[in-house]
Amino acid sequence: MKNKIVTILLTLVMITALVSGCSKKQNNNNTDDGNDLPKVAVLLNGNLGDKSFFDSANNGATLMREELGLDVNVVEMGFDNTIWETTLYETSDKDYDIIIVGTYQMQEILQKVAPEYPEKKYIIFDSAVNYDLGGLDNVYSILFKQNEGAYLAGVLAAMVSENDTMEYSLGNKIIGVVGGMDIPVINDFIAGYIKGAVDTVEDIKVSTSYIGDFNDTAKAKDLAKAQIRLGADVVFHVAAQAGLGVIEGTADEGKYAIGVDADQALALKDTQENRAKMILTSVVKNIDQVILQAVKEDMNGTLQYGQTQSMGIKENAIDIAENEFYEAMATDDMKARIDEIREQIKSGELNVPSIFNMADGEFSELVSSVAP
Amino acid sequence: MEQIVSIIFSADFIFSVIRLSTPILFATMAVLISDRAGVTNIAVEGTMLFAALMGVIGSAYGGNVWTGLLVAVLSGILFSGIIAFFHLKLETDIVLTGIALNLMASGLTIFILYLLTGDKGVSTGLNSKTVPNIHIPVLRSIPVLGEMLSGHSVLTYLAFVVIAIITVFLKKTRLGTYIRAAGENAEAIDTAGISVKVVRLKALLISGAIAGLGGAFMSMSYVSMFTKDMVAGRGFIALAAEAMGHGNPILSTLSALFFGAADALSNNLQLFNFPSELTRLMPYALTIIALTFYAARAKKQLKK
Q1: pLDDT digits (tens, 9 = 90+) for A149-202
Q2: What confidence score (pLDDT) does residue A1 get?
Q3: Cα B93 from Cα B86, distance rounded (Å)
Q4: pTM of the model
Q5: What would the mean pLDDT of A337-347 be, rounded to a whole number?
Q6: Does the pLDDT at position B249 exceed 50?
Q7: How many angstroms away from the CA of B127 is the closest CA of chain A?
Q8: Which terminal residue of chain B, N or C, has fewer Cβ atoms less than 10 Å from its own Cβ?
Q9: pLDDT confidence of A19, banded at 50, 70, 90?
Q10: Closest residue to B227, CB basis, from A215, A225, A271
């Protein structure tokens, strides 16, 4: 008797699931017939408010709504990585057409989920899935050539450090960089920065320090101060919000800083102008423009799923910020030089080395070759 | 190598050791007073984080730094009041309560920050104040010593005042004696007709106030803003420092300074291209080594 009830109940549940599953699909088809605008979900494995990375992705979503009139949903998944996978599954189960994720932390999860939903389309930015695994023909990967933007920052930093006529530079030919963690994406920035500096001023010294996380603002400040004590005229940070400590440390000591991911001088301009005016420039990743462009291409049917695209200065995906502070601080010679090198990178005449193409140990050799 | 030595034996280095040690000193004293009462406050980390944010908010809305400081201390007291409520009133496990509150502090601070500024990472939108640095008249003119000891934040000097007060307080005052008794032999003061719970409550509230000062130092002196999870383990380091000092204020202070020095050393060694993994684990490795030595010695003494 008991078994019978269970069987009946189970059958009922299964039928309901089947029916609802079908009806959902029909709904889907209906909307597809009505208008063929894709429905987009942007899953962020972090929180908004970082003034850079995720905020930029969120801005991309806003642009899609405004410029393309799309139905876009942004989901903040927070920093608890145990829920990322389930959220991606849940989102894939819903009626979204394009699902956008970012960072290397989502790469493996996407590699697992995407093959199970061949009818969905996925875009991953700032990381690339491993297409050799197969079944990932519905994934488009976007990599940033952060090395190119950082190269320009290195060129500028080296010129500033060499120039003792600038107000806050001693002409020490020493610059510094503070990274969040010793991981490939961060090191790609650092490699570009060092190369840019060395190619511009041959005997420049570059001091490299890591915080160990992206939270410890106080430690970041101390690391910047230690580099300045050693003689650094400019300190570049690649440490998300912890890097604000670097900006504070350099401003306290009367030295220049270079920001990252977003235009940090503009972000600080209203509340902390004395710090904003010590930020030479920022290496900016235009995540918003890049994902907007990808979705546009998808709508035109030209987006090449199943491939990785590396985007740099040429694609307007990365650059340094040329705001009022940059205009005021950089000399005309410096600006001309930066413009010249930017053109060289665009035309392919200058090829900035990337850590992703370096042999094992080549990066650490590069770092030690310029260490003070 | 010569360069490294010259950096380590410079007045600048000692100055940065003192600055780096300040939050750890506050946290260590906060742990110490609670530990001596028999209720080790492992939520010091979260308390500092909460107070760091509240201090920034207090100074931004109160218009001056001292309001901020007061708010930070009060919120530290409030936060440890929550621990006291759960542990002493509802009799939950103090360790689990502490862990829960540490986790809560991380989310709660982001939530409050978001409500006030619409920002989830940093408080740069708030016009918060910083605690001034002071130069000590006679001391500052002494050549090397002046460079090391003068020009620190008001809170840094306050940290040493707190240490002195706690040392005397535990030994000489009535409440101090009760606190020690509550930690060493709770039954004894119970039979003497004094409520162990009330004594422990007072110890926890004092602990919260001191942790509040530590939090205020992080966001109003060390750096001039609140950023998400900015305490970054300093409250936990303090637990180790207090354990190494075996609850003795002077010895605990020395171990806190030792951690500060290890931190400063690791920051400076990175300049000379020492592998960052190695320098970063140094404070923690030194903790384990020091605790091992300490345990070995204690065991030896026990044998005697």
Answers
A1: 999 999 999 999 999 888 888 888 999 999 999 888 899 999 999 999 999 999
A2: 57
A3: 8
A4: 0.85
A5: 95
A6: yes
A7: 7
A8: C
A9: low
A10: A215
Amino acid at B125: G
User: Has residue A34 got a pLDDT over 50?
Assistant: no
Residue A13 DSSP SS3: helix
Beta-carbon contacts of A212 under 8 Å, excluding residues fewer than 6 positions away, are: A181, A219, B276, B280
Q: Which residues contact A51 (CB under 8 A, 6 or more apart)?
A: A241, A262, A264, A267, B119, B121, B122, B124
Q: Indicate the number of domains in chain B.
A: 1
| Owner of token pair 């109940």 | A9
Q: How far apart are CA B169 and CA B163, in angstroms?
A: 10
Q: How far is CA B42 from CA A258, B46, B119, B160, B173, in A?
A: 38, 9, 28, 22, 25
Q: What φ, ψ does residue A257 adopt, rounded to 5°?
A: -120, 155
CA distance A266 to A296: 28
Q: Does B277 touch chain A (CB under 8 A)?
A: yes
Q: Give the residue on A whose Cα is nearest the Cα of B218.
A: A218
Which residues of A make CB contacts under 8 Å with B? 47-51, 182, 207-210, 212-213, 215-219, 221-223, 225-227, 229-230, 241-242, 244-245, 248, 267-268, 271-272, 367-368, 371-372
- Give the torsion through C-alpha atoms of A92, A98, A101, A102, to 10 deg: 160
**Contact status, residue A159 vs residue A200, Cβ threshold 8 Å:** yes
Q: B34-83, pLDDT tens digit by residue?
A: 999 999 999 999 999 999 999 999 999 998 999 999 999 999 999 999 99
Reading the block at residue A230, the tokens are 């050693």
Query: Is residue B113 a contact partner of residue B120, using CB atoms and an 8 Å limit?
Result: yes
Confirm whether B143 is domain-assigned.
Answer: no
Domain with residue B238: its CATH number is 1.10.3470
Write down the residue that tokens 């410890």 correspond to: A216
DSSP-derived pairing of the beta strands A279-285 and A39-44: unpaired
Question: Does residue B14 sit within a domain?
Answer: yes
**Beta-strand (E) ranges in B126-224?**
none
Question: Which helix (DSSP H) or strand (DSSP E) does residue A121 occupy?
Answer: strand A121-125
CA distance A346 to A355: 19
Please indicate whether, in this complex, the C-beta atoms of B110 and A47 are within 8 angstroms of each other: yes
Question: What does the block give as tokens for A242?
Answer: 């912890």
What value of ipTM does the predicted structure carry? 0.88
For residue B181, give the 3-state DSSP assignment: helix
Distance CA B241, CA B25 (A): 9
Which chain A residues have a beta carbon less than 8 Å from that of B120? 47-50
Which DSSP letter does residue A133 get?
G
Confidence bin at A16 (pLDDT 50/70/90): low
B229 close to A (CB below 8 A): yes
**What is the number of other CB atoms lying within 10 angstroms of the CB of residue A70?**
19
Sequence letter at residue A175: I
Q: Is A132 exposed, middle or buried (0-12, 13-18, 19+ CB in 10 A)?
A: exposed
With tokens 């927070």, the residue in question is A78
**Does residue B124 belong to the interface with chain A, where contact is any CB pair within 8 Å?**
yes
Q: What is the pLDDT of residue B246?
A: 87
B125 inside domain: yes
Task: Let me know if residue B283 belongs to a domain.
Answer: yes
Q: Would you call B116 an interface residue with chain A, using a CB distance cutoff of 8 Å?
A: no
According to DSSP, residue A132 is labeled G
Q: Report residue B96 CA to chain centroid gap.
A: 20
First and final C-alpha spacing in chain A:
83
Contact A77, A84 (CB under 8 A): yes
Whether A217 sits inside 8 A of B114 (CB atoms) is no
